[in-house]
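Regression report. Comparing outputs from two consecutive submissions.

Submission 1:
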Amino acid sequence: MKTRVISAIFIMLIFIPVLLLGGIYFDIGICLLAAGGLYELIKVGKTEEKLPIVMQIISYLVLIYICMRNINSVDFNYKFSYQMLSTILLIYFLPLVFYNDNNKYNIKSAMFLLGSVILLGYSFNLIIVYRNYEITRIIYLLLISTMTDTFAYITGLLIGTHKMVPKISPKKTIEGFIGGVLIGTIVSTAYYVTVINPSSSIVIVSLITMSLCVIGQLGDLVFSMIKRKYDVKDFSNLIFKIKKSEIKKHYNVTAIILFVFSFSVNSPYLLILEFAATV
């Protein structure tokens, strides 16, 4: 517990100033976080998949490129580039022909790296765009993730008795899930209607916030499934041997960001939270 608190304080002392400064400092910080996430996934993936060092290096370069797209944009009309997607597909599939050896690089390896880069690249790039759009909304998303994750842990520890999905995450309980979503919704909604848009419909904001809290928890479970799939006890610890619960807070934010991203792709002029302000 002491190590977890120290590591959390250390991260916040770095992250908060970078968040407030914004600009290139925030962009670089987000790229480093994305690279750290890819490192985690590659380390896990290497337990079963063939991931040549050349393809790993290429993956980091592609990831940084995706993250740095639209970094100066202040418009949330986020558009998906199919030209770039097709290029990325070629980058990962063409080497299959040149390697021509399943023991060195195969289709499963290509799909693993491709999925990891797209997952992290687009979600972290959207964080940058979202920060440019308005800092208060980034804080809102971070509040959802932090409050939901923290109080899910506390509630589960205090009154958790019914296991939620024991085969995926043995320590998660239904009580913890409900407690995390409830507190996360209350705190984040209060912040939104107080700081971001006081004229918003509290009912609509609450419903949207609750859905994002649930998405964050499901994102946590997705990465727990990855951990179980590759038979890894914990994701690697980058700072002060951070516990898996600390690392997976980033995955909660990623899941929430991807949920918002899905709306922006399907309808470029739709911003889910702006809907609340018009009701």
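Submission 2:
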Amino acid sequence: MARDASRHHHPSPRGACIDDKYPLSSMQAPLLSTLITMQKGESMRIKVGMVVAKRERPALSELEKYLPNDWADVFLFPETYFLSEQLSDVCALVKRHRKWLITSMEDHREPGKIYQTGVVIDPGGCLIGEHRKTVLTDWEKEHSIQPGDSIQMIETGLGPIGLAVCYEIWFPEVARLYALQGAKILFNPIGTGMYYERQVEQWTTLARARAIENGMFVFGCSHDVDTIPIAFAYSPTGECLVFSREVNRLIRVVIDLEQTYETMSFTDRTPHLYQQICA
């Protein structure tokens, strides 16, 4: 859902970084346990914290509340969690706590246009990847939100990941493109919660399907507004690692990227028969 776009435009460059001299390979203490184990070639265990956030609270206060939590290395916040005018402040806060942040912002950086942009900010406060939402709802179209025009996997110190912003999880092509590019984790920041029980069932069923059909982990969480707030995580085999509803809190789960899963083989695909899908 879009917010008031009549605020002053303060451009922030793509790839914004609080400290460009802060490479992941030379991070100072406290080092993330995830990155330590990945550099040693040991178990690639990642501690993910999904925050079902209250939209009416100032965004930075919610970040200040949860980012100091040492339990999680990576935090997922809902869709349009902050405005692009706040990007520098958000990056500074992420750097202060040395955590990964994955969320979505209402993006006014391009004059005269509004995008819903998923962002990945590393522990150095650098915006290392972003994805403009490509599939828009009728409400977003009516409110002049612009669609993105590309779906590109994001390389991170956590491994290759994909961002399916809210409604994009309903379209299998989005997740499949990420998987074909090598993404092992798909993050789904969701706007409002679910409006009725059937939508809860539909959304989680589709998220589970995206995990199974692409052999990837799938995480998602929504805002806590006047709807049914949810958070979920599925393994590459479709196992439900965690599911939560109707709470405003941090939901935690640990995954191991080196664990082997028996999943479908992309070599069994017959893409020459799929041309009509893109017609």
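Expected: both submissions complete independently.
Actual: both completed, but the second showed a warning that disappeared on reload.
Relevant detail on submission 2: The radius of gyration is 18 Å.
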